[in-house]
Amino acid sequence: QSALTQPASVSGSPGQSITISCTGTINDIGRHDYVCWYQQHPGKAPHLIIYDVNNRPSGVSSRFSGSKSGNTASLTISGLQAADEANYFCSSLTGSTTPYVVFGGGTSLTVL
Amino acid sequence: EVQLEESGGGLVQPGGSLRLSCAASGFSFSNYNMNWVRQAPGKGLEWVAYISSSSSNIYYADSVRGRFTISRDNGQNSLYLQMNSLKDEDTAVYYCTRDFETMTTRIPADYWGQGTLVTVSS
């Protein structure tokens, strides 16, 4: 049982937009804005795509965006492309030492 | 270019021990906090342990406290995870991650290694 709750799967057609939710509690997502999103292709390591709720690292497409409301964070991918098909994980710092960071269970994105 | 390369994984019997290493390059290792994160086969991510840049602060997940020990050697640009009393449920790919922190930004894992597989089985 992961600390943060994500839908197991989402799907969309090329060009469409999808949103993945990540629900936590007042002790993690609701506590501050240190929410990250990671993309993981099969057999590969996770790759940071969003940090501090809505910031993109250099080199990450502007098609990826993040937001937060209360205890729930969201990742939106616009203009879906085949290469976006992957697993997506959210994370949040907790403000305590144990656990230091919590992750969502991951969402499998299928591009139809 | 930031690079993290884990090693030391393998097959071990329940109750056994294993020591993972993570070689860092492309950045000033001694200035960064580091984490170990694991992923059981087909499962999500689980944070395992954290160590600050000078090793003054160390945190563990409840699931590994008392069995795992995180350490680092800044002179060797290396991070370690000593795993003792291993259990079946410790089977996972173990990743080392760089922890990026400024006055306004906190990223527990801005860079990841490729991971090393630990299999605990008799």
Would you write up a description of this structure?
The complex is a heterodimer of chains A (112) and B (122). By secondary structure, chain A is mostly beta strands. Helix content of chain A is 0%, strand content 43%. Chain A contains no helices and nine strands. In chain A, strands 1, 3, 4, 7, 8 and 9 form a six-stranded mixed β-sheet that branches. Chain A starts with 8 loop residues before the first strand and ends with a strand. Chain B is an all-beta fold and 122 residues long. Chain B has strands spanning 3-7, 10-12, 18-25, 33-39, 45-51, 58-60, 68-73, 78-83, 92-101, 106-112, 116-120. In chain B, the strands form two sheets. In chain B, strands 2, 4, 5, 6, 9, 10 and 11 form a seven-stranded mixed β-sheet that branches. In chain B, a hairpin with a 6-residue loop joins strand 5 (45-51) and strand 6. Chain B is globular, with a radius of gyration of 14 Å. Chain B starts with a strand and ends with a strand. The model of chain B has no long low-confidence stretch (mean pLDDT 96). The interface between A and B is medium-sized, with 26 and 27 residues.
